[in-house]
Amino acid sequence: MANNQDLIALEKKLLDREEKLEQDRQKLEELKEKYREKLENASGLTEEQAKKELFEQLEMDEAKAVAKIIKEREDEAKSTSDKNAQEILLDSMRFGALKFIAEYTVSVVKIPDEEIKGRIIGKEGRNIRAFEQATGVDVDLDEEGVIRLSSFDQVRREIARRSLEKLIRDTRIQPFRIEEIVEEAKKEVEKIMFEEGEKLAHEAGVFNLSRDMLSVLGRFKFRTSFGQNLIVHTLEDVKIGVHIAEELGANVNIVRVGCLFHDIGKVLEGEGSHVTLGVDFLKKHGIPEPVVNCVAEHHEDKPFTSVESVIVHIADQISGARPGARYEDVEEYGKRLTEMEEIAKKHEGVEDAYAFEAGRELRVIIDPGKLTDEQTTVVATKIRDEVAKSQAVPGEIKVTAIREFRATASEFSS
To answer: Tens digits of per-residue pLDDT, 323-345?
Structure first.
């Protein structure tokens, strides 16, 4: 009986405690609501707005931390990439080293005696005139013991050299014989160019090219740019470009063909830069567009459209910039720039002229009192044509004629 009463008393006690806890919980909720309202009134924000602001602050803090991590990773990647880039370029330059030795065109022919020189000149100079007309070169007979052949076209110079050597051995130096010998020499040089083009393409790893394309590539044997033979330069380009493409996972075939043809325009005749001539030639022969773009963009005349174009550009720069790759006699260089300026100054209405960009641009100052705008345009064109004809300047020659009229009026007051 006593046990039952104890249990009833304990149960009542628990119920009272549970009721009190519920009352306390309700009071806490009321206090919580009051404090929430006070916070909203104090901050001017609702609960949702406060949450949003808190999350934004958290995101901002996290973004700063993430940005810091990214910056550290970028610095680390840059440091590593610079090192890797140096290694790739050094390896590429090593792969570009060639054992090939260029045969530079010889423009001097030795003669055994002055009697032979007299035969070459002929009666009243008819033989020498026939020779110059057939070969398209200028012949200099002033120096004793040698004959100098002068022409910017090195293929013509080679034909003339071979022809002259044949005539000296033949001794039958007459106008009709000169024409026969020159034709024979032309066929020999054409055969050599085809063989050299075929050899160059095979060395570069490019096959199945047309006979016409191989013959044009063979002209590289007789072409130099700043003293660097085009066959040597092209093979270096190919080897360097291919190695970089392999390291970067780019399309090796596009780079290979792009490097092979990037300077093809330098041995083509026509108006425009070697880039323009090369692009037109490749399009005519059905070369794929990615390769054509490599040629069109290798001097940054157009924005790069692919990683392969960038690689061809880099390979070209490495080959041309390496020590000993290119040279030009300083005195001859200065003389050429001076001659360009003199050509411009001899035209009426030209006050002064300045050669820029290694002779690729000529700035001409016009006297506005002597020439009109229309006459200035005509003079600029004439100067460009004369410079292009008389000077061996790689690529296009840009002539900028400046005609500026100024009038100043001053008034003095006492």
So the answer is: 555 555 545 666 777 888 888 89
**H-helix or E-strand containing 348?**
none
Give me the sheet containing 398-403, strands edge to edge.
350-356, 361-366, 398-403
Cβ partners under 8 Å of residue 360, min gap 6: 393, 394, 395, 396, 397, 398
What phi and psi values does residue 403 have, to the nearest 5 degrees? -120, 110
Helix axes 47-95, 230-248, angle to 10 degrees: 140
Amino acid making up residue 324: G
Cα distance between residue 246 and residue 240, in whole Å: 10
Q: Please give the Cα distance from 371 to 383 (Å, whole number).
A: 15
Residue that has been written with the tokens 């628990």 in this structure: 14
Distance CA 313, CA 93 (A): 14
How does DSSP assign 111-139, residue by residue?
-S-HHHHHHHH-GGGHHHHHHHHHH--EE
DSSP track, 58-104:
HHHHHHHHHHHHHHHHHHHHHHHHHHHHHHHHHHHHHHT-------P
Short-list 320, 270, 318, 272, CA closest to 296: 272
CA pair distance 170, 369, nearest whole angstrom: 62
Scan for tokens 């792009």, then name that residue: 258
How far apart CA 189 and CA 155 sit, in angstroms, is: 8
Place of tokens 């009666």: 123
| Cα-Cα end-to-end distance for the chain | 135
pTM score, two decimals?
0.55
For residue 390, how far is the Cα from the chain centroid?
26
215, 190 contact by CB (below 8 A): yes
Task: Among 85-89, 103-107, 113-117, name the one with the lowest average pLDDT.
Answer: 103-107
